[in-house]
Design goal:
The complex is a heterodimer of chains A (about 375) and B (about 170). Chain A has a single domain (about 10-365), classed as Cytochrome-c3 Hydrogenase, chain B (Orthogonal Bundle). Chain A has about 375 residues and is an alpha+beta fold. Helix content of chain A is about 50%, strand content about 15%. Classes of the chains: A alpha+beta (about 375), B alpha+beta (about 170). The interface of A and B includes residues 58, 146 and 147 of A.
Chain lengths: ~375, ~170
């Protein structure tokens, strides 16, 4: 019998082309048997230079880039870019546009969380529930397609408002969806969270405590799982979130199980907000009067939104021309991927795959 | 009881097994696209079959990827002739910014989504070629009025070909 300390350490590349690393993430893992001793995250395989491209795009065109950064929640990216531009221009957005932004944002949040839920199951070995998640996502993508014209690259939110009102067809679909979503989320929870094997896998693994979360700059569910109730929607309200009622779910331990519970509860809260948005949608214009080519006065702003992955921020510097002087994109996943180096050592290789899924990273946003 | 969760999961699976299929057999059956669906850009024509495009270049300047190009000759009487209005559908991301920029409602996002071609060269083609541009009628560009433009009196010249156009061309 060879003891664990007598063996040679093995360095293994996980990714960049591996189906379980959520895109082209590369982890250089040093293994002692099946235990991870050290891990190094190597990002950048999906780099497209979005920040630099942004310096050559007009302010109205930034949304097309943001759609391709965090491609699972395009509305939030577009919204951050639009909010930053509006701050520079000091434009007032019509109330209806603000409510539609919140409405579509929450629809997009559930769609994005459904992908997380499905792939998290795949990472833990639960192959069945992925397609159940796609059932909900399909309905929501139909809604988003009906309203914005595209299923993923929406280009819906613009500086000054949104491009179009909600369609009767989309409203009908949303109402049907809202009748069933709570039952379906319970069903999802029963399929994955209620499964004892899954619970054994995720409880007590990958603990992110409060200090670690704050020092790594984590936001979103990854921070809230450790008990820090930071949510941009509540702490720095934008769009219509100041007028909506919702709870910010937090965890206590900070393990993968808490992150799972927080995200499942976020979906319920998002459904609650969609209900309020449909009922309370004000009348009026969806777009403020804004020139086609905007030249904001020189200055710099930071605007942030709560994307499904955390605080998505845009730092925009204007020099008075029609393109930004500097366009910085604060991607919440970039911080989540760094914390992997901290939480993976000491776990098993199979748990590493599960933990990548539990922090809900998106490579398009990390590498941008 | 350990194992109860697994039984619950099996019950859900069994219940869903009885549902009918929700997919369609694609090339034989097609789902209807929503009205706002954005696919390849297509030119629009008036009732006489003449293109509505006035060659004002608004779409060319609005395109983030610089995939639209207008080659125009201006005659002595200031009327314009479109030699080529080229479009690279292979590089188009169907954002719809060109259609929104058009003050004359001369292009639209069509519902043509079957865009695969055997030869990549076919992905670049002319939307319009060798046709006269529609004259800009002061006062009643019928469609322009609908679009609630802040200054639609002479939209062809309104965003004068300033530094913006040149910068775009430089990239």
């Amino acid at each position: 019998m060879i003891g664990p300390r007598d063996t040679e350490h093995l360095v293994v590349n996980i990714g960049p082309q591996h189906p379980s690393t959520h895109g082209v993430l590369r982890l250089v893992a040093e293994l002692d048997g099946e235990e991870i001793v050290n891990v190094e995250v190597s990002a950048g395989y999906l780099h497209r230079g979005i920040e630099k491209l942004g310096e050559h795009r007009r302010y109205h065109q930034l949304g097309t880039l943001m759609d391709r950064g965090d491609y699972l929640s395009g509305i939030h990216g577009e919204l951050a870019a639009a909010l930053a531009t509006e701050q520079l221009l000091e434009v007032e957005v019509p109330p209806k546009a603000r409510w539609l932004r919140s409405l579509m944002g929450e629809v997009n949040r559930i769609a994005s969380h459904m992908i997380w839920y499905g792939t998290f199951g795949l990472d833990t070995g639960a192959m069945g529930q992925f397609l159940y998640a796609m059932r909900e996502r399909e309905t929501l993508l139909d809604v988003l397609e009906s309203v914005s014209g595209q299923r993923m690259m929406f280009n819906y939110v613009r500086p000054g408002g949104v491009i179009a009102d909600i369609t009767p067809d989309a409203e009908q679909k949303l109402r049907t969806f809202l009748r069933t979503i709570d039952t379906y989320i319970d069903e999802h929870h029963a399929l994955l969270g209620g499964n004892e094997i899954f619970q054994k896998r995720v409880r007590g693994v990958g603990v992110i405590n409060r200090e670690m979360g704050l020092s790594f700059g984590l936001t979103g569910a990854n921070l809230r799982c450790s008990g820090v109730p930071y949510d941009v929607r509540r702490d720095k309200p934008y769009a219509a979130y100041g007028e909506l009622e919702f709870d910010v779910p937090i965890g206590s331990v900070g393990d993968a199980w808490d992150r799972y519970l927080v995200r499942m509860e976020e979906m319920r809260q998002a459904a609650r907000m969609i209900r309020q948005c449909i009922e309370g949608l004000p009348e009026g214009d969806v777009m403020a009067k804004i020139p086609k080519v905007v030249r904001p006065p020189a200055g710099e702003v930071y605007a942030c939104v709560e994307s499904p992955r955390g605080e998505l921020g845009i730092h925009l510097v204007s020099d008075g021309s029609d393109t930004p002087y500097r366009f910085h994109y604060r991607a919440p996943s970039l911080f989540a991927v760094q914390v992997l180096e901290e939480i993976l050592p000491g776990t098993l290789l199979a748990d590493a795959i599960m933990l990548i899924g539990s922090v809900d990273i998106l490579i398009g946003e990390i590498d941008r | 009881m350990w194992g109860k969760g697994i039984l619950t999961g099996m019950r859900i699976t069994m219940r869903n097994m009885l549902r009918g299929p929700i997919t369609v057999k694609y090339p034989y059956e097609k789902l209807a696209l929503p009205e706002r669906a954005r696919w390849a850009v297509a030119p629009k024509y008036d009732e006489d079959g003449a293109p509505k495009c006035t060659a004002c270049m608004a779409c060319v300047r609005a395109c983030p990827d610089h995939i639209l190009d207008l080659e125009v000759t201006t005659r002595e009487d200031k009327t314009k002739h479109i030699e080529h209005y080229s479009y690279e559908v292979g590089a188009c991301m169907m954002c719809g910014l060109c259609v929104e920029a058009c003050p004359f409602d001369a292009i639209e996002m069509s519902h043509d989504y079957e865009l695969a071609r055997m030869d990549p060269a076919e992905l670049t083609y002319d939307l319009l070629a060798d046709v006269d541009a529609a004259p800009v009628k002061r006062g009643h560009p019928a469609e322009a009025a609908k679009r609630t433009e802040p200054k639609s009196a002479e939209p062809a010249e309104a965003p004068a070909p300033d530094a913006t156009g040149e910068e775009a061309a430089d990239e």
